[in-house]
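Good day; I would like, with your permission, to put a structural problem before you. A protein sequence and the structure tokens that stand for its backbone fold form the material at issue. The record follows directly beneath this note:
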Amino acid sequence: MAMVSAGVSGEGARGAANRTTEPPLEAEPHELSIQQAAGSGPRRLAIALTVAVVGAHYAAVADLPFLSEDYTVLAAAASMDVGACFELSRPPLRPLHDLFFLALQRADLAPWLARVPGYFMYVLCAALVWRLAAMLGAAPRRQLAALALFLAYPAAVSLSWVAAVSTLGRTTFLLLALCALLTHLRQPRATTGATAVASFVLALAWHQGAVAFAAWALALPACDRSLRRRAWTDPWVWSIALVAIGYAALLAMLSPSERHHGVKQLGAILANVPRAALAFAPEQARWIAIDGLRGKLDLFGVAFAVALLGATLWAAAWVWRHTQTLARALLVCVGCDFILPVLATGFVMRYAGLGSALVAVVLATCARTRVAIGAISLLGLTWALAHARELRDVRTAGATVDAIVHATDVARQAAGPDALLHIIDPPGLIGRERDVPVFNWGLTQALRRSGLGERYWVVRTVDYVTSSDIEKVTPAAAAALTPSVDWHGLRAVRE
């Protein structure tokens, strides 16, 4: 029996050798060309779609002025040097963000040039979404679907608001770290492991929220059994964990005044949870639900919110059930990425940008039936409409900034260079999501940058969604002032 087995094995080996050395594979170039053609079409469409969307997006915001904290950070950068960008006592700890604005200030770049790096990183994110979908085994058409979903998700604020470049930097380098880590866990090499760790460090240098990647490195092998054995013993995976632990320990040693964010009160956290849970729901339905939970729509609002949250959980469970284990790991990564903004900030849609890249890949790879494809296509359409609406809000914000500066210029010329000008209730944040910044920060810096003098008293009588450098006074105190700046035509935006 052993001889027979050996003979069969030898025959099989010789047959295998013949199959690999004889020309049949080379004699069928049409099969290879068909495969290449099948992939080249979606690839060309992907390039065309990215160029068209990003090009049109940039053209819509290129002529806009800086917004809000752009002016604050530029003013701070004027008194900084390179060493100051790495000082631990300067919250938040984002050295690459600070270096970017230091270079921006010294080069005195116009807003249209200052936005170019953010758009470049957005294109890199699109390419990494394409790559990540391929790593999950998606065919080129599904890669194209993932890319389209990613480009559809609202990103106008992150791209047009230069101060948000830190968020784009974190997204770009975490996607790169994720692709490198997946490649490494499948076929360990020093170059892929080092790339994953280095990309993680660069993401941390852009934004402290990148520390969540350590949880990602654990979620991948925990969900995908094929990666588990290598991950638990891999030195590069442990290096990612050690970097995260060291970084967290570093932040823990800072005093409360040196930390950018702390844990919010329980009420704020509970308000953030439904915002995060509905981050990928259609915009109009999401805001009916949010207003309902705020008590604005009586019993109907509460019932609608409960129904939408239930539908979202059901959809998440359906996707979980109908997708592969690695895609499930990406869903876990999205949840991990949302934990910090839910606990430490007011959750806005901008914080879901990285999660949208992962969700786009998962949705594109799990849709197998016509009903699923139709539902996901409809969801993508609602994202695109919300993106267009957000882009319109950004353009309104830019026009408002120009109008405020112009009105102040008129008042300054009438009052003289040394007069004290009163500016009351400038718009803070606008838009349906109340996340498009105008002048919750940076108004006096913007006026100085425009050469409109130094003497201003800017006050507000209303609360802003975020913190602000504008002093809040009572309506009675504001009424005793004589507004020097004419807000006619901006009231609808302000309200």
About this structure: The radius of gyration is 26 Å. The longest helix spans residues 370-415. Residues 404 and 415 are 16 Å apart (CA to CA).
